[in-house]
Design goal:
- With 186 residues, the chain is mostly beta strands.
- 0% of the residues lie in helices and 49% in strands.
- The protein is built from no helices and 8 strands.
- It has an 8-stranded antiparallel barrel with strand order 1-2-3-4-5-6-7-8.
- The radius of gyration is 17 Å and the shape is elongated.
Length: 186
């Protein structure tokens, strides 16, 4: 179950489950298709611990983007997340959250432990009008035990049986660089 937490955009490929990028939001794609983009994410910060949740320093994925009035639609292949497109029509932000029961499935036994993951991305589209050739963004993930959770054995230390985190709460940051690899449908 610990591997469920990070499945972000389409996901860090080593982290199955929890396929909703940016949490549990669902949106209907509409607007103008901008194309398919190949994204390379580079980890720039990590207070959760090296390899926590199976995270790697570098990961790649594809995402389809569409633009609507004041909205950017991010389709990771599993769900469509609606973000905000600023008045300048190039700056965007996407936010979401998901809560994962860390004791379900293959997780270690113990008292109730649920972790909330808050996702935030802020970036800029690069191109002219609807001809977007690339985008850049900064993405962050914050992990916090929910109220009443007892997650001590998942944190590296005396009580840990199978540590998942170096510390809780914690976070991870990524710089994203993306290039369009597929034109929007006509």
């Amino acid at each position: 179950m610990r591997m469920l937490l990070l499945a972000l955009l389409p996901a860090l490929p080593v982290l199955p489950g929890c396929v909703e990028a940016f949490g549990d939001q669902a949106a209907t794609a509409s607007g103008t298709a901008l194309g398919t983009f190949h994204v390379v994410g580079t980890q720039t910060g990590n207070t959760c611990g090296e390899g926590a949740l199976g995270a790697t320093r570098l990961w790649e994925f594809d995402v389809e983007l569409a633009r609507g009035e004041g909205a950017l639609f991010w389709d990771n292949g599993a769900s469509v997340i609606e973000g905000v497109l600023d008045d300048d029509e190039v700056s965007f932000s996407i936010e979401g959250r998901v809560v994962v029961d860390m004791r379900a499935g293959d997780g270690p036994p113990g008292p109730p432990c649920a972790v909330e993951r808050r996702d935030r991305a802020r970036g800029e589209l690069r191109g002219t009008g609807d001809d977007i050739a690339r985008f850049e963004a900064r993405m962050s993930y914050a992990f916090t035990p929910t109220a009443g959770s007892r997650c001590e054995n998942l944190v590296a230390g005396e009580l840990s049986v199978e540590p998942v985190f170096a510390a809780l709460p914690c976070g991870m940051d990524y710089d994203l660089e993306a290039r369009r690899r597929g034109d929007p449908p006509e």
